[in-house]
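Sample entry (220 residues):
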Amino acid sequence: MFGYRSQLNIDFLSTLKGALTLVRNPEKTESVYDIEDGLRHTKATQAAIAFVQKDPAVARLIAERYLPPPLNLEALAQLPVDSLGYIYARYIRDAGFNPNFYRPIDVVDDVSYVLLRMRQTHDVWHIVAGFDTNVAGELGLKAFELAQTRRTMAAVLVCGGLLKALFNTPDQLDAVLDRLASGYRMGMSAQPLLAQKWEEHWERPLAEWRELLDILQKSA
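Predicted structure, serialized as tokens:
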């Protein structure tokens, strides 16, 4: 019991630290990880894992603990220009991103595996689902994630984005609501992105990926 309470205290402090940092600086990615790490042991996170495991392909991936080999952007840049791999490499370079930007996490259970896999493939989801990395695009993708995974961090960021628009930029509220609604609808109608081993099929054209996954219209 003492150990459980200690873990809850650590989780609470991590969540509080992340929330305060996110309020002060919404661009600080580390705060998102602080919040998500603090929510790892909640019933909501456990429910999200149970939800995604209802899909047999996702359940198999989780059981397998599939992890890809290290990324080689140089090799991806040699693939056909319409391939996911080439588009991903160009996307990372043009944006000046580090493909390994995410906070690592030790895989010790289903929760930690899913969190790691979601962090690894965040930018792939952006590309395949067609959402930009601006605020509207991030909110749209979070709504998409929420529909597909019930991820607690996605719910937190959707709520935060909605509240920020409501109080800070009410003139943009309609646009934000539209983006959230379209992202959620897309996520509900698409095949599960979490089930995909993108790294084994980098050469597949992006258009083919979208067709296979029932993502037929690109969102901004």
